[in-house]
What does this fold into?
Amino acid sequence: MKRIEDKIKSEALTAITKLYQAEGDPQKIQIQKTIKEYEGDFTLVVFPLLAYSRKNPQVTAQEIGTYLKDHMSEIAGFDVVKGFLNLKISQTFWIDFLEDIRTVQNYGKVSQTAESENYVIEYASPNTNKPLHLGHIRNILLGASMAKIFEANGKKVSSVNLVNDRGIHICKSMLAWEALAEGATPDSVGKKGDHFVGEYYVAFDKEYKKQVAALVEGGMTEEKAKEEADWMKKARAMLKRWERDHKKTRELWTEMNKWVYEGFDDTYKKLGVSFDKTYHESETYLIGKDVVLRALKLGELSQRPDGTVYLDLTEYGMDEKVLLRSDGTTVYMTQDIGSAILRFQDFQFDESIYVVGNEQDYHFKVLSIILDRLEYPWSNRLSHLSYGMVELPEGKMKSREGTVVDADDLLEDMYRTAKHASEDLGKLEGLSKEEKEKVYHTVALGALKYFILKVDAKRNMVFNPKESIDFNGNTGPFIQYSYVRINSLLQKAEAEGLKYKLQIHRNSIDTKELELIKILYDFPVIVSEAAEKRTPSVVASYAYDLAKEYNQFYHEHKILTAEDEESKVFRLVLSEKTGEVMKEALNLLGIDVPERM
It folds into this structure.
């Protein structure tokens, strides 16, 4: 569907040729939405065109504006404000536009083709030593939403998860379990597997701090005490045994990871996310280690006297990046090298996107440089979707100290709050218990996802569960409720036998009707902008504006009892398309809509 901006641009280039006998540069034709302080729909910036007219801005704008009005039936009028030409689009255009899109399926989306770019997007990336928490939720919701947004822009998207299932942090949980559990399992104590294992990670930290404090009290420096504490030395020894494929160590590791995976899968299901492929660092680190050792042998890497393998990046303004420790164990960078290589083999991606917090900005810059230095031609196809931290009103969370907001506990709390809010509205009479439960869960998830995703991905944010579930204001439930209102209206129209799926016959529309159509017109641009800026907040803001505008329209206009049949049909068509677009915008955020609230 051709945009009116494209037609204006084409006609403006023709105007330059006709008026000034010059061939205009398309790059100099700048068209933007008219700012609210001025009358008009689209603004043509005239200043870049003065080189063709050799006249002042006001005269140039007047001449081009007159030409456009004479040659475009869509232009109802124009206004010149200094070097800006504000164009007013005719009501006929907007009415015809609504008629054109009313039956369009997947309006606002770009269809995939054989030439569509292949994107791989990695998100979640949990550690198997603790359950998912609020920080993971922001990561997962951002990744899942961006996958939908990229798909809506015509990309082929594969969602992948890289599980951090090895390393010193995993050994800490294992060591604490061996020392304290007395053979207990999640089933024997009636706990979810990831919660069960996470408790031993916290237990390790408590005991470790006691040991460090005792050594410091005995005269050792804190730095040395942290290295010499008994449990830390044992955890390091366990990691070495794991890397040597020690049977007993591997068996315990396999069993404890199994408990955690079962817990993760349950939480993913609650959040409504899934992955096309899951990678494990216990496999990818071996690929990375082989690559590093081969590069060392070829003289592409350096080695210190103690055996540490590194790459000197000082020429890039960075440090010497360690790739293998002196004891031969790997670091995160080593396994990320292996993961990237394996991922390219699997997907031959045009772009591989890592959804990871902004504290890892440096890490991913280094990863691309290392792969480039190791002569992988696709190293420039890696990108980092960097996002800000999520905190609570009380401040930051710490996994080791057990002061995080557990994802499952948060989801349960959101459910309870949504249930109370829905019951207070009193609009679920007649629904079965199962139907009510579905509404409560849908509202709870909508509130959580919207509150997280309405914040620009790059910004830090504070999550307040109580603020997120509100049926008024900039919240998910408000937008869901707006959709339910439209759905209820259309059901009433059907019940009354109203034939509104007819061709629109309308010569003029009022301000609220016009504003609503204009917001619908913006949807394809919003979908594109969200992908370009790489933040779902663009879609969230749009969904709220659309819901807010519709509610104002709904309160100011009669619909089922409109004064004439043409108005009734037009407003029902407008409502139906608004509901479709609202639902699709929420879908891009991973949010479902209930039929009733």
In short: Residues 397-402 have pLDDT under 50 and may be disordered. The longest strand covers residues 156-163. The CA atoms of residues 182 and 561 lie 72 Å apart. Residues 193-217 form the longest helix (25 residues).
